[in-house]
Amino acid sequence: MSETRMDLSDPDVDPFEVARAAAAVIAERTGVERHDVALVLGSGWGGAADLIGETRAVIDNADVPGFSRAAVVGHSGTIRSVSLGDTDRRALVYGTRTHFYEGKGVRAVVHGVRTAAATGCRQVVLTNGCGGLRPEWAAGTPVLISDHLNLTAASPLEGATFVDLTDLYSARLRALAREVDASLDEGVYVQFRGPHYETPAEVRMAGILGGDLVGMSTTLEAIAARHAGLEILGISLVTNPAAGTSDQALSHQEVIEAGQAAAARCGRLLADVVTRIATED
């Protein structure tokens, strides 16, 4: 595919062909034919990359077809190839994601997980920073995602593509995560479009619908990952109480600070979980 045919916003371009082209560049730059597990590091999770294992290669997003530079403060615009402990397994670590609110289209949002599948990954760990609806989840609490509500009014699937999402977030991987940290709770993640934070009324609506966590990412990636054949683990970091559940004003700086405060715990948790996934598979 020529460089002029790599535009994911072009409806005549096959997004899976772009993902295969991206995987080929990653293989060339990392010197390995395949990766085993992928991680998408959301707000508050950036420090985890250094604890997962030894970084063997770092690739600038702009050098890989279909990817773009980080658009959010606190995210890293690179892709890392990381060795997992003493194993021969490799993790593909995305330091950022494309958010739906950036206006680049759903194809761009899910390009990372489709590329991960094209590199050979069988599992993906999707992380995010979010607002929590439960008062017992203080800022800095990691929570496993058991299910989601997609309130973006969009889907990464095109045409008559029907995919079962009954067990979208793997019960097996959640059980592995709880073997690492038995205190991990779980809840339903709700994705709003953003980039504005939710109103108190919208948060109350999310709770009535069964939501426990609110944010601006993850659900579209999870759907695309299932379609691509990946097993999915979702982990949210509660960075703040959701709007209306406390008297605190919301700010992105608060999200960054909560992530920094929880970096050691969350980084170690993620490293141990990813190693467990790779060795159990």
Automatic annotation (TrEMBL):
Binding residues for phosphate: S43, H75, R97, T98, H99, G129, S217
UniProt record similarity statement: Belongs to the PNP/MTAP phosphorylase family.
Keywords, alphabetical: Glycosyltransferase, Transferase
Keyword Glycosyltransferase listed: yes
One Gene Ontology cellular component annotation held by this UniProt entry: cytoplasm
Sequence ranges assigned to domain Nucleoside phosphorylase in this UniProt record: 37-274
Source organism per UniProt: Arsenicicoccus cauae
The keyword Lipid biosynthesis is annotated on this UniProt entry: no
E.C. no: 2.4.2.1
MF GO annotations: purine-nucleoside phosphorylase activity
Pathway assignment: Purine metabolism; purine nucleoside salvage
Protein's recorded name: Purine nucleoside phosphorylase
InterPro entries: Nucleoside_phosphorylase_d (IPR000845), Nucleoside_phosphorylase_sf (IPR035994), PUNP (IPR011269), Purine_phosphorylase (IPR011268)
UniProt-annotated binding residues for a purine D-ribonucleoside: E198, N240
